[in-house]
Design brief:
Elements (H helix, E strand, L loop, with lengths): L7 E2 L2 H11 L1 E8 L2 E12 L7 E7 L4 H5 L5 E12 L5 H5 L6 E11 L2 E3 L2 H16 L13 H8 L2 E16 L6 H13 L3 H9 L4
Antiparallel strand pairs: 1-8, 2-3, 2-5, 3-4, 4-8, 5-6, 6-8, 7-8
Amino acid sequence: MYLPASFKEERVSVLHDAIRNIKVGTLITLGGEGLEASHLPMLIDPEPAPFGTLIGHLARANPQWKRAAAAPEALVTFLGPNAYVTPSWYETKRETGKVVPTWNYITVHATGTPRFIEDREELRGIVTRLTQTHESERKQPWAVTDAPADYIDGMLKAIVGFALPITRLEGKWKLSQNRNAADIAGVRDGTAAEPGDNAAALAAAMADL
């Protein structure tokens, strides 16, 4: 990832929190058929240090996991809040007019070698953890045990899990840090006034700039 110093985020705790908030990553592998990508919900475990492990599953019918098993590395990308930045928000536009549009965003890239998991009980543990994570804030959370056991066993046969110990973890918080203070304030205020959760999250991330 192209990573100018002004946009670099290296704090592992911040990167892990971003992964937990984004929730869905893109697993990218290179196999015999070329590049392949799957968009998958994932969990981040903090161990082993320093970068932790990504955990998830994909359909057994998805051939990516078999082709990726022969490749040494995979890349997982997480794209967080992102939004267009109009030049109209810059104070510099009023001063010189020498401005152009851009796009602000938060993203995390994780690299490692995935271990694919077919053991039934390990798979059950993965889907149970994913379910608990995404159901925990609901008034009546659904649990894996709410479904008939034989049905869950059948579903487990249709998936393959993975654990990807991270060997390289990169974060890019492109939030107009390369602009002057007045331009940053303009982008923060302009973004905050835009509709949608993406804009609100970006404006909140800019609060300490």
